[in-house]
Design a protein that fits this description.
36% helix, Putative xylanase fold, alpha+beta
């Protein structure tokens, strides 16, 4: 009965989000605090995946620069794009209280340090706008791409002559080396870049099951700024099979 209830609840939730785009899945600080307490003892990767999955069903953020930036907010959980989902899942995973998550956000989202003024972030112009800058900063986990498969060089952007990536064929072969909570940065082919961006999308890995029965999932904000979308959980192999990206980079919080 419980399985049936959860399945029906998931269907109803998806229907509500579709029919009522303004419907909010955001949690109160009290609810966040309760869940953070329950997660004590879990690995960082497990916590990251938990928070990412908690936001499944959240509508896609169609604000061109991100609603959290426009509002000067740290928490803007009503709508999410792929970068904000990654921000939020990691910040909540690394913290023990909502207040601590906010302090972590002021460090991790910025090249330098975020500044609060009158309750709002005053310097979002210093935020990470490119996924590749998140990787290079070291703030978003240790890069483990070479541990997953054989790297190749491709053309870089914004003054970087080249970058090393896991080509699509290698990440498909190396999927078994991924861990729950890994961040996957999907790399665009040079000819498909619009504003010199190397990273075109970000998602979070969740592994379910054990041994030969492991299932690998990607939790990501699937959509575009024009058409919208939703935070979703899909089989990683299926996503790899259909993706338009040339390869990936992977980071991990050990």
């Amino acid at each position: 009965m419980k399985i049936r209830y959860l399945a029906v609840s998931g269907i109803m939730l998806s229907l509500i989000v579709f029919l009522y785009p303004g419907f909010s899945l955001a949690l109160s600080d009290e609810e966040i605090q309760m869940l953070q307490s329950i997660l004590e003892g879990k690995t960082t990767g497990e916590k990251i995946a938990f928070w990412a999955e908690r936001f499944v069903g959240t509508p896609y953020d169609q604000d061109p620069q991100g609603e959290y930036v426009t509002r000067g907010a740290i928490a803007a959980d009503d709508r999410m794009d792929c970068m904000y989902l990654t921000f939020r899942a990691v910040e909540l995973a690394l913290s023990r209280t909502p207040g601590e998550a906010a302090q972590i956000a002021l460090d991790k989202r910025f090249h330098s340090q975020g500044i609060l003024k009158d309750g709002k972030v005053a310097n979002y112009e210093d935020r990470f706008e490119y996924g590749e800058d998140m990787i290079q900063s070291g703030k978003w986990g240790r890069e483990v791409s070479p541990e997953v498969g054989r790297m190749i060089r491709i053309q870089g952007s914004r003054g970087q002559q080249f970058l090393k990536i896991l080509p699509a064929a290698e990440i498909k072969k190396g999927i078994g080396r991924l861990r729950t909570g890994d961040l996957i940065f999907f790399i665009k082919a040079p000819e498909k870049r619009v504003v010199e961006e190397e990273v075109g999308h970000i998602g979070i890995v969740k592994i379910e099951g054990n041994g030969a029965h492991k299932n690998y999932y990607l939790i990501h904000a699937g959509g575009t700024k024009i058409k919208g979308g939703v935070v979703t959980k899909v089989r990683l192999k299926d996503y790899f099979a259909k993706m338009q990206f040339i390869g990936v980079k992977v980071t991990r919080f050990d």
